Amino acid sequence: MKMKKFTKTHEWVEVEGKNATIGITAHAAEELGDVTFVELPEEGKEVKKGEALCAVESVKSASDVYSPVSGKVIEVNTELDASPEIINEDAEGKGWIVKLELSDESELDDLLTEEEYKNSL
Amino acid sequence: MKRFPYIPHTEEDIKEMMNVIGIDDIKELYKDVPKLFEGELNISESKSEIEVKRELLELSNRNANLEDYAMFRGAGIYKHYVPSAVYQLATKRNFLTAYTPYQAEVSQGTLQALYEFQTAICELTGMEVANSSMYDGGTAVAEAILMASRVNKKHKSLVAKSIHPEYIEVSRTYTESQGLEIELINYDEKTGRIDLEDLKDKIDENTSSVVISYPNFFGVIENIKRIKEVLPEKVLLIVNAYPIALGLLEAPGKLGADIVVGEGQSLGNYMSFGGPTFGFFASKQKYIRQMPGRIIGETVDADGKRGFVMVLQTREQHIRRAKATSNICSNHALMAVIASVYLSIIGREGLKEIAYQNYQKAHYLAEKLIETEKFDPVFEGEFFNEFVIKPKFDLDKFNEKLLEEKFIGPLNLGRFFDDMKNYGLFCTTELNTKEEIDYLISKVGEIDEINL
């Protein structure tokens, strides 16, 4: 069963079993403007919840993407290397950034539901 | 009379401010300063403008003016001719007073000048993209090493021992805290070029980049093509080029370089007490997203008119200082503008002519010096406008004698290399006249009479 959650810092995470796909929200992508570069993490990197996972650069700013959950990076979206604009086109779909292997599923409980996130904007 | 008439606060203002923060005396703000520093500063009373001018003029006259000296030393910074029009144009107020444009698009003139600069650097280096300058040649090399590591995610850079020794120091400083390793590659003692066998031996699966200079610190022209051939596909070749030499030599980009950097001082900038200078930085298009600094791009505005914008600027210090990949300063951008004006005035043919003169004069000098039989040749490799020879006498003493006659002699390489004590690195540029070259040679001829 798939489950999608959000953070106050504008990341989304979609969980299926042990695997979590992470990206930035459509709202964040719109606020950033044209994304020019995504500094992707290396596969195998261990991250803790709330730690900077990578950075997204747009024409006017550069922002850290914080990991919504703890885990190990098992896949990165290398298409973003050549075409970072995918994030502007489809932030919550083809614009996913990394896949993590979850280390603590209970962390998901603290995250926002889609409705809670939308209300927080 | 107020002591500092340009400070806008009145006594009342100051009293009110002190009231708000609850102090009675302004000195209370400085109570943490150690007692040692209390009291009056040891500076003289104010002077009239006329007095200040006289005093400063007297001080500045104590400096040696390079215009009065014949220069036979390069080693990274060079005395080249600067056409008068360069400074007339490049130091127009609009360029001179502009700070790093934070709201960049408002400064269309500055952006256009930098765009032209990038174009010139691309043409000169034979590369596809260039950024709008770096701090200096040394930091450009260091940034290139970091960039290569971002491109191929490998962590060792093989740096030729024959690049500028100070660039090696700068690169070590930049990379040591980032988990990068720098290993030096020997030069071939016969040719002065990079030792290809040593290079091959030291390449391993961690090798990210190889750094060479073109020409190298000994003035010898490296064989870029040959070096590229021995590199595995993923290893990036970084070439630190002397831009004036590129008027004569094939562009590194056409010979297989992946990143071309260099010190830009020679392009219309004076030698000025070590700075400011600027670095240039160019690479292949496919690496543009890993390039440090900022790049100026051309676009159209809402009305379809041509305009310039700053792109990829977010990795520069003014947006995320702690994570910046580069540190560009306003004055260094001005130096790049100067280079842009210089290159547009000199033109393609002019640069070729300047490079040709540099080459010819150095070769004439080298030949004549060897003929005196007071020097041994050192390297066989072809050189541009600098060369190493070994005098059979004390070089430092000879340089002292020359200086008395307003000649700046060669660099003693012993300063940088333990095994090259008393080796001289000579340089000539288009500014050396035949008369002064011949005079230098005659001085060598007199050496037996000069009591060294």
From TrEMBL, chain B:
The gene is gcvPA. Pfam families: GDC-P. It catalyses: N(6)-[(R)-lipoyl]-L-lysyl-[glycine-cleavage complex H protein] + glycine + H(+) = N(6)-[(R)-S(8)-aminomethyldihydrolipoyl]-L-lysyl-[glycine-cleavage complex H protein] + CO2. The keyword Acyltransferase does not apply. The glycine cleavage system catalyzes the degradation of glycine. The P protein binds the alpha-amino group of glycine through its pyridoxal phosphate cofactor; CO(2) is released and the remaining methylamine moiety is then transferred to the lipoamide cofactor of the H protein. This is Probable glycine dehydrogenase (decarboxylating) subunit 1. The glycine cleavage system is composed of four proteins: P, T, L and H. In this organism, the P 'protein' is a heterodimer of two subunits. Keywords: Oxidoreductase. Belongs to the GcvP family. N-terminal subunit subfamily. One of its GO terms (molecular function) is glycine dehydrogenase (decarboxylating) activity. Residues 6-442 form the Glycine cleavage system P-protein N-terminal domain. Its EC number is 1.4.4.2. It comes from Marinitoga aeolica. InterPro entries: GcvPA, GDC-P_N, GDC_P, PyrdxlP-dep_Trfase, PyrdxlP-dep_Trfase_major, PyrdxlP-dep_Trfase_small. NCBIfam families: PRK00451.1 (NF001696).
